[in-house]
Design brief:
Blueprint lengths: L13 E6 L3 H10 L8 E6 L7 H9 L4 E6 L10 H18 L7 E5 L5 H16 L4 H7 L12
Parallel strand pairs: 1-2, 1-3, 3-4
Helix pairs in contact: 1-4
């Protein structure tokens, strides 16, 4: 397991896409109840997670984020018919891509209908943060894979 502080004071940097009808309500509830949440998380509320394109997730990782969470409604409870079924398929495909390019599918959390209550949302985020804490930060990983070049002052 990684040492505490490996990701800095705020912990892993995570972008959360939350359906406003489910996980968004859970996030609001967690905030109102003042439940402990990881500091490095940033939430973007979306009308439906079917709007999240795999390219958006890949861009987040390319910018050094340690994890991305896509949190939608129950698979058969989507306000937009079966739109989140499409998202489930997209994210499964994206998980395979993340494995093949060396990022790892564990850095992507996809969950449907498990975070509509504040305590559920907070628990899900804490567990995801613990999982990411055990991994090297993405900035280190990109450097190790040769994706980011380090320029020394002498080279400039």
């Amino acid at each position: 397991m990684a040492r505490n502080g490996q990701h800095g004071e705020a912990g892993p940097k995570v972008l959360v896409f939350a359906c406003r009808w489910c996980a968004g309500i859970g996030a609001d509830g967690a905030g109102r109840q003042r439940l402990p949440l990881p500091a490095g998380f940033r939430l973007i509320s979306v009308e439906c997670v079917s709007r999240i394109d795999p390219d958006t997730v890949l861009k987040a990782f390319s910018q050094g984020l340690d994890g991305v969470a896509v949190l939608g409604c129950h698979l058969d409870g989507c306000r937009y018919n079966r739109a989140n079924h499409v998202t489930a398929k997209r994210m499964a495909m994206l998980s395979t891509i993340l494995e093949s390019v060396g990022i790892g599918s564990d850095r992507l959390l996809t969950s449907f209908g498990t975070a509509h209550e504040g305590y559920q949302f907070a628990g899900l985020m804490r567990r995801f943060a613990q999982r990411l804490q055990a991994m090297p930060p993405m900035g280190d990983r990109e450097r190790d894979m040769g994706l980011v070049s380090e320029r020394r002052v002498e080279d400039a």
